[in-house]
Amino acid sequence: MPKLKTSRTKKAPEGFESIQSLLEKFNNKLKAAETKSTASSSVKKNEILWEIYQIHHQRSRYIYDLYYKKEIILKPLYDWLLKNKYGDINLIAKWRKQGYENLCCLRCIQTKENNHGSTCICRVPKNDLLEEKKIQCITCGCRGCSSTD
Description:
Organism: Babjeviella inositovora NRRL Y-12698
Keywords: Nucleus
Helix content: 40-55%
Subcellular location: Nucleus
């Protein structure tokens, strides 16, 4: 009978060691945010997930910047990071499109999940009225991710 392979994960490509420590810090922050106590009555129900969304965004933006802006990492490492879910493939794909360069999360552009079948309030360009009211996204806590801001 043939031998079964127990480990299906491939070894990380060259260059992963240089960014591994920062990615581990992001993972530790994410774990700490997930385990925070939700018993606090001062925090609204939807605000509990805001920190998780923000850390997820920062980690994906870090990978995006390394590959597209700074060009520090190579394509095999970039693909490996996305395949192993270090970054959000769909969010990074949106950042590459015009008008979505500063997108905070994918839920803010989904029209089915928002009132009146439109995008989230954080996608609306800021003007004097919005600046005075300090409007914040209900989903992720963003204060404005429109590309015109």
